[in-house]
Amino acid sequence: MIHALAFYVFAAVTVVSAFMVISARNPVHSVLYLILAFFNSAALFLLMGAEFIAMILVIVYVGAVAVLFLFVVMMLDINIAELRQGFLKYLPIGAAVGIALFAEILLALGAWSVSPVAAGSLRAKVSDVPNTEALGRLIYTDYMFLFQAAGMVLLIAMIGAIVLTLRTRPGVRRQKIAAQIGRRREEAVVLVKTRVGEGVSS
């Protein structure tokens, strides 16, 4: 009874906080609701017996990603009024994309099924080994290519974020390493012979 009650409480808070992430008007509040959703999702994983995934969710997503989002949002000077000006303009396109994604999720859930034989063999395999070891075997054997593909997607997203946020300002002197390495001794060193008493006077 307590286990079921805790599940419904954590699940309800997760759903409400996830809805508040996309409906909050302040971006900082959205990130805080996202952190709340991560914590409650970690609690749900703990109830399922997946302690490793729960700790990874708290350490990686809450401790790094969400905090990074929070600092980035707080450092950026975001004009909320300017962002809302094009809301009605892009509303039909956004609604069409959202409906298409929702329909795909419904189709995937409708076609998804678990074979009783596969489920029984999976329970037998998981029960023999610890949780972390079973997860590692599953990721690095059956889903190895998907795991590497996810890493490539994250790498491309990181490069895209760097390219989009890279700003070039005029009048800023930048270091040119190739020019520094390729210069000759005559271009870098100047020998000046001065006689006694003919130094540079300030």
Question: What is the topology?
Answer:
Layout (H helix, E strand, L loop, with lengths): L1 H22 L3 H22 L2 H25 L4 H6 L1 H25 L4 H13 L2 H12 L1 H22 L11 H6 L2 H4 L14
Q: What do you see in this structure?
A:
- The radius of gyration is 28 Å and the shape is elongated.
- The mean pLDDT is 78.
- Helix 1 packs antiparallel against helix 2 (27-48) and helix 2 (27-48) packs antiparallel against helix 3.
- Among the domains are: 1-79, Four Helix Bundle (Hemerythrin (Met), subunit A); 125-161.
- The termini are far apart.
- With 202 residues, it is mainly alpha-helical.
- The protein has ten helices and no strands.
Could you provide a short overview of the structure?
The chain has 202 residues and is mostly helical. The chain has ten helices and no strands.
Give the key terms.
202 residues; mainly alpha; Four Helix Bundle (Hemerythrin (Met), subunit A)
Number of strands: 0
Label the structural class. Answer: mainly alpha
Please describe the biggest sheet, giving its number of strands, its sense, and whether it closes into a barrel.
Answer: none
The helix count comes to 10
Residues in β-strands, percent: under 5%
Could you estimate the helical fraction of the residues in percent? Answer: over 70%
CATH topology of the domain at 1-79: Four Helix Bundle (Hemerythrin (Met), subunit A)
For CATH, the homologous superfamily of the domain at 1-79 is named as NADH-ubiquinone/plastoquinone oxidoreductase chain 6, subunit NuoJ
In the CATH hierarchy, what is the class of the domain at 1-79?
Mainly Alpha
